[in-house]
Amino acid sequence: MDAYVNVTEVGMFLLVGLLFIVLNLVLLAKRYTRARFAMLSILATSVWPALMIVLSVNQLNVMDQLTSGEWTLNAVIAWAVVLSTALMTMIPAGVFLHRLVTVSRLHSEL
Q: How far apart are alpha carbons 1 and 54 in whole angstroms?
């Protein structure tokens, strides 16, 4: 397995995915985000490590696949990585910024 897959990369992909899943579950448990948005982000987070592992094993450059203009399987996987990365990062970031603005408004009223 070590000849085809860098075990350290796989571990890091899984660790990042796990951290974002935990972050989304915490945001959902504290009711900072709606269930549909949290579940969409958790779905993107659970797919992301698998997509990154596929790109890593195939040794593909994401930017080359995104700008190729052809709809091959590799290009679809590259676009799926971009979409899942955006969903898994932007939803918690939006929740964080919304909470930050709310707290700053409450703090400025005092």
A: 14
Q: List average pLDDT for each run of 10 residues in the chain, which is 110 residues long.
A: 74 94 93 91 93 86 88 91 94 93 87
Q: Across the chain, which distance is largest between two alpha carbons, in Å? A: 61
Classify residue 69: in a domain, yes or no. yes
pTM for this prediction: 0.81
How many structural domains compose the chain?
A: 1
Report which secondary-structure segment, H or E, holds 104: helix 73-109
Burial state string for 48-68 with b = 16 or more CB within 10 A and e = fewer than 16: bbbbbbbbeeeebebeebeee
